[in-house]
Design a protein that fits this description.
Layout: H1 7-11, H2 33-37, H3 41-46, E1 54-58, H4 64-72, E2 78-83, E3 100-104, E4 116-121, H5 131-139, E5 142-151, E6 157-159, H6 166-175, E7 179-181, E8 186-190, E9 203-205
Parallel strand pairs: 1-2, 1-4, 2-3, 4-5, 6-9
Antiparallel strand pairs: 5-8, 7-8
Length: 209
């Protein structure tokens, strides 16, 4: 019998309050967003046009990638990072980066007040209880031609009895317009122990006829 826990129990668990995933990752280089996502977020935002490109990063850790991007993007850029633990200290030049905001919050209780050109979640979905709920909500936070990109392991999504819902979930996501890139475990939406080797959360769902 699978014992399910509440969101409150989940966010207080040692699996979710994990300090080894995504804490130190930078924007480019060996341990970087560019390597994990297959593109440089700052370069993508510069190609969006306009003076105020916007990036939302879910499970942003220390926010180092966002800090580096804020230094490269125009002054009007908006960068928001959300993490359960949050950065241990603000960047030393925080006052010079007015468009950067690093929020400490649980994603189950948080929602933005604006739309974003780019939304990312690097190795973070598998620490959330309702992964599909967050994916659905995040898709609604995009501008009409925005991009959502996140690491996603379909095998971490289960039916209420513990059996795998991976095939059904991938089919449903593709039907909704998402692309799943299995080799890199990436879920992409162009609007308009798991594979990481770390402890993770399995999301359980009840089928409705």
């Amino acid at each position: 019998m699978v014992r399910l826990i509440t969101d409150a129990e989940l966010v207080g668990s040692s699996v979710v309050a994990n300090n080894t995933m995504n804490r130190e990752r930078g924007l480019s280089g060996v341990n970087s967003y560019a390597r994990e996502l297959g593109f440089d977020p700052a370069q993508y935002l510069l190609g969006c046009g306009g003076a105020a490109p916007a990036w939302l990063d879910l499970c942003s850790g220390e926010g180092r990638a966002m800090v580096e991007a804020a230094r490269r993007l125009p002054a009007g850029a908006v960068l928001t990072g959300v993490d359960l633990v949050g950065p241990l200290a603000p960047p030393p030049d925080a006052d010079a980066l007015p468009g950067l905001r690093l929020v400490t919050a649980a994603l189950a209780d948080w929602a933005p007040r604006r739309s974003y050109d780019l939304i990312t979640c690097v190795h973070g979905l598998h620490y959330l209880g309702d992964q599909l709920g967050v994916i659905t909500r995040a898709a609604g936070w995009l501008v009409p031609d925005g991009r959502f990109t996140a690491h996603f392991d379909p095998e971490s999504v289960r039916w209420a009895d513990g059996s795998s819902a991976a095939r059904a979930v991938v089919a449903a996501l593709r039907a909704a317009g998402f692309e799943y890139r299995a080799r890199r475990h990436l879920l992409v939406l162009e609007a308009g122990p798991n594979y990481t080797g770390q402890p993770a959360v399995a999301s359980h769902y009840r089928a409705h006829c």
